[in-house]
Amino acid sequence: MSRLAQTAGLTDVQREILSTVRDFVDKEIIPVATQLEHRDEYPTEIVEGLKELGLFGLMIPEEYGGLGESLLTYALCVEEIARGWMSVSGIINTHFIVAYMLKQHGTREQKDTFLPRMALGEVRGAFSMSEPALGSDVSAITSKGVRDGEEYVLNGQKMWLTNGGTSTLVAVLCRSDEGHPEGTAPHRSMTTFLVEKEAGFGEVRPGLTIPGKIDKMGYKGVDTTELVMDGLRIPANRVLGGTTGRGFYQMMDGVEVGRVNVAARGCGVAQRAFELGVSYAQQRHTFGKPIAQHQAIQFKLAEMATKVEAAHAMMVNAARKKDSGERNDLEAGMAKYLASEYCKEVVEDAFRIHGGYGFSKEYEIERLYREAPMLLIGEGTAEIQKMIIGRRLLEEYRFQG
């Protein structure tokens, strides 16, 4: 039997890329991931390796120095990387979303300025939408950008910024009332600003502060921060796309792609949990035989493998739909919802198979058990995904009475 989560219809180039990434994960990530995670240490050497592989430019067009690959290729690479250590996939995800938003919505000058350096990993991207009191209600954004001559002045506090310290380019969503009179729908008065900054913490440019890392239960190594703007001035030509009022749609386009990414992360973590569970079940003996020979454990393994396969299939479907140019919010929502929920369940079953040893930091499954919950929240909770799915289904199956 072949390994789980195989993808039919890949080109030779795609298979070669995935083989290279998988080999890198097995040799350079898995052996050090748990140690680095326990120290909450940024994986500098791993990131440099990803840069050498060209993964920071995987979906950036060739004319800008990237590889020009599809979302499917990218998602399958993310699945492999998350199988090694989910935090590493987070490092490239927000970079990729900003590059995607620039490719789809940026002006020619913005593309020429940023995309070639992003492809090399010299400019590292992050995007910032959430705020401390925001949650899932994007329309409640209070951060604001006000025009002042040839500049905008930005004020506000953003939250849950992945790559907040290590990034040098942040796509920030703010309210901008210019040209949008009072009473305009909230989502029509939002603008995405491209904010350049120095890497690091503290005041990284006048008016912009990145406080220290937020201490998290899991998803360690990658820096998650706040972003505080206090009279931050940026040139007017750093409005994404050159026109205000389009930020909500630009961000949602990026988040759609991000949901495919989170689904891929869920698939990767679940696949690793299955590998750990099935391996341990064949080594651990009870009542005179390996626990894998007990029917109760075989049932668990069967359920786990089925969930890995189902989540992978939905993730691939969502990526291919986006690559085709079609609307994929339904498929992306379903994939993100299913993959994150199944990931949690597969990790927990692998944890149970390990018994008391699963509670020990010496075993890799302990790390996965703390990482999986982040996927239930990132890029929209299960409840948000269900709202999106339900609304789209009602559009498709409108009652004709």
UniProtKB/TrEMBL annotation:
The keyword Isomerase does not apply. It comes from the Bacteria. Transmembrane segments: none annotated. Residues 126-230 form the Acyl-CoA oxidase/dehydrogenase middle domain. Residues 11-122 form the Acyl-CoA dehydrogenase/oxidase N-terminal domain. InterPro entries: Acyl-CoA_Oxase/DH_mid-dom, Acyl-CoA_Oxase/DH_mid-dom_sf, AcylCo_DH-like_C, AcylCo_DH/oxidase_C, AcylCoA_DH/ox_N, AcylCoA_DH/ox_N_sf, AcylCoA_DH/oxidase_NM_dom_sf. Pfam families: Acyl-CoA_dh_1, Acyl-CoA_dh_M, Acyl-CoA_dh_N. SUPFAM superfamilies: Acyl-CoA dehydrogenase C-terminal domain-like, Acyl-CoA dehydrogenase NM domain-like. This is Acyl-CoA dehydrogenase.
